[in-house]
Design a protein that fits this description.
This protein is an alpha+beta fold and about 100 residues long. The chain has a single domain, classed as GIY-YIG endonuclease (3-Layer(aba) Sandwich), CATH 3.40.1440. The protein is built from 4 helices and 3 strands; from the N terminus they run ββααβαα.
């Protein structure tokens, strides 16, 4: 079964946030880390995965991504803190240069 993930990246705890959606979370984080996608994440050095949510369908993930993008910053930070109280990245070793 294929899963789709909605995720939030940050440059630091309570810093700049980015919301995205993918069918391959590990690969997408690698792409963000090394500036292979999204000018925004490259420009602001936003590549630490601080929140994610799995969905069984692309449609569900796309809808959730759209919902989160409309949320204000305070709501997004609260959502991150509920899942990840320490604010640490989930992907410390995922995005090294050896690839995915």
């Amino acid at each position: 079964m294929k899963f789709f993930c909605v995720y939030m990246l940050a440059d630091s705890p309570n810093g700049t946030l980015y919301v995205g959606m993918t069918s391959d979370l590990k690969k997408r984080v690698y792409e963000h880390k090394w500036g292979l996608v999204e000018e925004f994440t490259s420009k602001y050095d936003v590549h630490s995965l601080v929140w994610y949510e799995a969905h069984e369908s692309a449609e569900s993930a796309i809808a959730r991504e759209g919902q989160l993008k409309k949320w204000n910053r305070h709501w997004k930070i609260r959502e991150i803190e509920n899942m990840n109280p320490s604010g640490k990245t989930f992907t410390k070793h995922w995005a090294d240069r050896s690839g995915v």
